[in-house]
Specification:
single chain, about 850 residues, alpha/beta, 6-stranded mixed beta sheet, 26 strands, about 15% strand
Length: about 850
């Protein structure tokens, strides 16, 4: 260390306190990285790696980037899961002897970013904290950029996983002596950050909570203090935020306890229903959120996203939302004007977060000023509305006229991003600043006037006033006329042909003028910081207004979607019925708009139609129908109108899905293992109020195993008390349709198709009863399978259907000699077959015209004609 330069010694001292972060070390107008950080940074950011003292024992790898471009570079590092410690210059280089004072002012992590460049506008960025004991789990979720704070206590791991899936945190904190890894389907893996276990100790966590929530009554009223595991998770999270942000967090003043107020959508369901990401490329196109999100503001989009992933579980709250959406729908003129005005509202939530944390710049305050200007007119536009929710939200809109007026008086119309370069504060706001500005602006005229006055006073017409960087301002007189210099002229510099003087007046003016620019910049920065601090005092008012605007934006967006896409208001009930007339898939109908989408009805309840077994051809529409049902329920309970002609939705507590084939090779799980794991979770967690969507369960193993498992799963859902949930079960196992004969609450339905000229036409219409075939070979032909393979498949299928067998009794699948079914040995079937002759007789019988006695005689004749299969002896 003794051989290092003073700056590198300073770097090592600071780096030793932040070993787990990439240290951005401020040097003038650049951020520099050294040693391992430089090598990592150069690789991640594609920067040139240089070195000091190259080729010597003191070689120091380094790389850097301009400070003004820092946001984009930090964004790339954080999105790759790195922690970034920002080390700034804390003292003025002009006044420092040796290296300027430096220290880390903030640590940016995946879960603590607040800059717009680091965040998705319409998605929250939650930081999570998890604490586990034998008694259960505590969890806390905070979005630092918006001030949202939620806590949870869970007895079971699945409950914790469901909550984590809904908040999708960017970073998860946990005690370093208790490793934590959670796998969330469909989401990017979060960053995991271990913390010292003492931060999770109950006493330390309680103290951390009290420090944040200065009002004990408010903390008590939240109910969190009665949940010690949640307190331990939340307290550790707050301690972590103080360590990384290194400043107060005045916008975190409310904490909400999560207690079953929402429908649960686990990560598997979110993925299978393509709520936020599609299954093709993981993008947002073709998702439910992409259809419903017609919000005008970023904060409205975030709130609508939360409504989508956490649908309401209580009828009264759902009806209140539906009332508001309906009123916006029935007032198209007012809705249009309101949404147009909303376009002027910027992200007040995140602006407030940065203001409260003292990271906002002048443009952030200007954006807040513009946004507040629109609040009053927006509130006035809502005067005709009478729905209770809209009235409540309207009353919560605070224009903050005092804050708006202050920002209007203080800030220029278009302030620069840089805070220490001046140009922030409006003239007339500060007298001292105005004086300095006038001094700077009038300097040339003043010096010209001074020169004219001194010429007249001295009679020296060649006298001039000048300036140089070394000696400052001066009055210059030629040598020939130097004797005429007045007594109060003080010699400042002697030249070959002239003398230069200073006067008390010019000295005073020089001091003012030379210091005016630096003084003005510092004064503007002081005034801005004071302005930002004053705005921060109103963080709670700002957030209350922001959240009311977000809710109004989301409601108006749902109304706009209902208007554009022809949605209707669902009837919400507290019984088990789910009835939909002419229902449509809200996403597929947008994609299939040109070809036309075929609507279908649906009827389920827990009394007579609990399980609907759906059969039919590949590509016939089964999977769309299943997802459509789940999405319509989800939309109804989030307070949206639905894609149907009519809908009655009995409240559900969870939506489960098991759809499609996927594997998890990293965890050593095959496709079938994942399928069975997801199904097992459904059977363990479902209640009589759940909605279950199962698509092709059992297809990942042998036919007999698959049918047996599917059969048993349907029986379990039908017969097990407390698990008998409404279920849609799509399958190609036609054997399962027999269940409708023995289980009273199982019904069959099928998707129709017609054959024409050796082709199949998918009608995509649901009809009662079971399908008679799956048309798999036709679909293979449509997919482009070679004709030779298609022809051979048809031959094998005929052999199986006609009972063609080889001489040894095995099915005639190979191309070669076989004998007809009449000569074959009897083969056992999975389910007992009824003889063909008896079936044919039944088909031909005119049962409508039979008397009861004739019908009994007919059945006796059929029975007597059946061969006796019992073994004798």
């Amino acid at each position: 260390m003794s051989e290092l330069t003073p700056i590198l010694r300073q770097y090592h001292e600071i780096k030793s306190r932040h070993k787990d972060a990439i240290l951005l070390f401020r040097l003038g107008d650049f951020y520099e990285m050294f040693y391992e950080d430089a090598e990592l940074g150069a690789r991640e950011l594609e920067l040139a790696l240089t070195a000091r003292h190259r080729g010597t024992p003191n070689e120091t790898p380094m790389c850097g980037f301009p400070a003004k471009a820092a946001d984009s570079y930090i964004q790339r590092l954080v999105k790759r899961g790195h922690r970034v410690a920002i080390c700034e210059q804390l003292s003025d280089p002009k006044e420092s002897r040796g290296p300027v004072d430096r220290d880390v002012v903030r640590i940016v992590t995946p879960g603590t970013a607040t800059e717009d460049a680091l965040l998705e506008p319409k998605a929250n960025a939650f930081l999570a904290s998890i604490y586990s004991t034998k008694k259960g789990y505590g969890a806390a979720f905070v979005d630092v950029s918006t001030g949202e704070f939620h806590v949870l206590e869970a007895r079971e791991m699945q409950e914790l996983l469901d909550a984590v899936a809904q908040f999708a945190p960017k970073e998860i904190l946990y005690p370093e002596d208790s490793p934590c890894r959670l796998t969330l389907e469909g989401e990017d893996d979060p960053a995991y950050t271990p913390l010292p276990p003492d931060l999770f100790r109950l006493k330390d966590a309680e103290r951390s909570m009290r420090e944040q929530f200065e009002d004990p009554a408010a903390l008590e009223a939240s109910g969190v203090v009665k949940r010690p595991l949640a307190v331990q998770a939340a307290g550790a999270l707050l301690s972590y935020l103080r360590r990384t942000q290194k400043r107060p967090l005045p916008h975190l003043r409310e904490v909400h306890v999560l207690e079953g107020a929402a429908v649960v959508l686990d990560s598997t369901t979110q993925r299978n229903l393509e709520i936020f990401r599609n299954l093709q490329d993981g993008g947002t196109a073709g998702t439910l959120f992409s259809v419903l999100d017609r919000t005008e503001t970023a904060m409205g989009g975030r709130l609508l996203r939360q409504w989508t992933v956490r649908p309401l579980a209580h009828k009264r709250e759902i009806e209140a939302r539906l009332d508001a959406v309906e009123e916006f729908l029935k007032k198209p003129t007012e809705r249009g004007a309101f949404r147009e005005r909303l376009e002027r509202i910027l992200d007040i939530e995140r602006l407030t977060g940065r203001i409260a944390m003292s990271t906002a710049n002048a443009r952030d305050l200007a954006a807040l000023r513009v946004s507040l200007e629109a609040v009053g007119p927006l509130r006035a536009m809502l005067a005709p509305f009478r729905s209770s929710l809209v009235e409540t939200l309207r009353d919560a809109l605070d224009p903050l006229e005092d804050v708006h007026a202050l920002l209007g008086r203080a800030l220029v119309d278009e302030p620069p991003v840089a805070l220490r370069e001046g140009g922030l504060i409006r003239e007339g706001y500060d007298a001292g600043l105005d004086e300095r500005r006038t001094l700077q602006r009038d300097a040339k005229k003043y010096l010209s006037d001074l020169e004219a006055r001194e010429r007249r006073a001295t009679g020296i017409d060649t006298l001039r006033v000048g300036y140089n960087r070394v000696h400052g301002y001066y009055i210059e007189i030629t040598k020939a006329r130097a004797a005429k210099a007045p007594p109060h002229y003080e010699r400042r510099q002697t030249l070959v042909n002239a003398e230069r003087y200073i006067t008390p007046e010019l000295k005073e003016y020089e001091a003012k003028l030379l210091g005016a620019e630096d003084w003005s910049r510092e004064r503007e920065y002081e005034l801005f910081c004071s302005l930002r601090a004053e705005a921060a005092r109103h963080a709670e008012r700002l957030l209350r207004t922001a959240r009311a605007l977000a809710a109004l934006d989301a409601l108006a967006a749902l109304a706009d979607a209902a208007h554009r896409f022809g949605y209707v208001r669902p009837r919400i009930t507290e019984d088990s019925r789910l009835e939909v007339r002419a229902g449509r898939h809200p996403v597929v109908e947008r994609i299939a708009a040109r070809d036309g989408f075929v609507p279908n009805d649906l009827k389920l309840d827990n009394d007579s139609r609990q399980i609907l077994l759906i059969t039919g051809p590949n590509m016939g529409g089964k999977s769309t129908y299943l997802r459509q049902a789940a999405l319509l329920v989800l939309m109804a309970q989030m307070g949206s109108f639905v894609a149907a002609q009519e809908a009655e939705v009995g409240l559900v507590d969870r939506v489960f899905t098991r759809v499609g084939a996927s594997d998890n090779l990293a965890r050593g799980q095959s496709t079938f293992m994942v399928e069975m794991s997801e199904t097992a979770n459904i059977l363990r967690s479902a209640t009589t109020r759940s909605l279950i969507v199962l698509d092709e369960v059992g297809r990942g193993t042998s036919t007999f195993d698959g049918v047996s498992l599917a059969w048993a799963i349907v029986e379990h859902l039908h017969e097990t008390p407390g698990v008998a949930a409404k279920t849609l079960f799509a399958t190609h196992y036609l054997e399962l349709t027999e269940l409708a004969r023995v289980l009273p609450r199982v019904q069959n339905a099928h998707f129709t198709a017609k054959e024409w000229r050796d082709r199949v036409i998918f009608l995509r219409k649901v009809e009662p009863g079971a399908a008679d075939r799956s048309y798999g070979i036709h679909v293979a032909q449509l997919a482009g399978l070679p004709e030779s393979a298609v022809a051979r498949a048809r031959e094998v299928l005929r052999n199986l259907e006609e009972g063609a067998f080889l001489l040894d009794g095995s099915p005639a699948l190979l191309q070669g000699e076989h004998r007809p079914a009449a000569a074959r040995t009897e083969q056992p079937s999975l389910f007992q077959e009824v003889e063909t002759d008896a079936l044919e007789a039944l088909r031909k019988a005119n049962v409508e015209e039979m008397t009861p006695v004739e019908a009994l005689a007919f059945l006796a004749k059929l029975r007597d004609g059946l061969p006796n299969r019992r073994k004798k002896g």
